[in-house]
Prior knowledge:
NAD(+) binds at residues 91-96. The protein has helices at 9-27, 35-42, 46-54, 68-79, 94-101, 104-107, 138-144, 156-168, 195-212, and strands at 32-33, 60-61, 65-67, 85-90, 110-117, 126-127, 130-134, 149-152, 173-176, 189-192. The chain is 45% helix and 18% strand. By secondary structure, the chain is α/β, with parallel strands linked by helices. The site of 1,4-dihydronicotinamide adenine dinucleotide has 25 residues, from helix 5, strand 5, helix 8 and helix 9.
Amino acid sequence: MGKSTVISMAVVRRLPRYRRYLSELLENGVDRISSKELSERMNLTASQIRQDFNCFGDFGQQGYGYNVKELYNEIARIIGLNKSYNTVVVGAGNIGQAIANYSSFGKLGFNLVAIFDVNPKLIGLKFRDIDIRDVDDLDSYLDENKIDIGIICVPKAQAQRTADIFQDKGIKAIWNFAPIDLKVQEGVVIENVHLSDSLLTLSYRLNEAELFGTEEK
Ligand code: NAI
């Protein structure tokens, strides 16, 4: 990275979107893009984009735009996509199966290596060639295999216990789908995905004008 300052979370949250747009530009054979053009496509201001990209180093030349490939590579590296990660899913119900069946995570370098559940009807079945194992074997599996990311898709009441096993076995990153704020040790990072929060925000925005009698901005 060109600069050694820590990147703010607000910028970090925009990185996946930058990566996605830059990847589309590369696919379309675009070598260079100005912050103005990118801002029009992404619905951000050009100055916001310039500020964000300045955090990573010097990728633009005045009047000449950004080198798309260099910028893409640097953003991918900052996100950590220059490595690969082993992941496990615990809870092979609706959400767990949807994640297990989504092969694009693997293309990004997130390799699902095992799935665990308590339900005897599910244990032994396979998703995309990955066995569903008995959750009683989770501890020993994590002793024997280096796992980078634990994915929690169990009911809320079982989620903290699952997170505790992950942490005890040295997993440092948890992707949590259960609707609960999990307690994690220092040094463990957690990302919560709550589809219903997003849906409720949408509902609020749908009703905002009626509530406050104003047009949406
Ligand atoms: P589900 O009931 O279809 O699947 C849960 C699975 O976990 C079942 O197969 C069950 O046998 C298994 N399980 C239960 N206890 C376990 C344990 N101790 N160890 C291993 N496996 C265990 O539920 P669904 O719909 O897949 O939801 C899973 C979680 O995701 C729930 O916490 C739910 O509230 C949450 N959810 C989250 C959403 C989001 O946006 N993040 C959206 C919908 C659900």
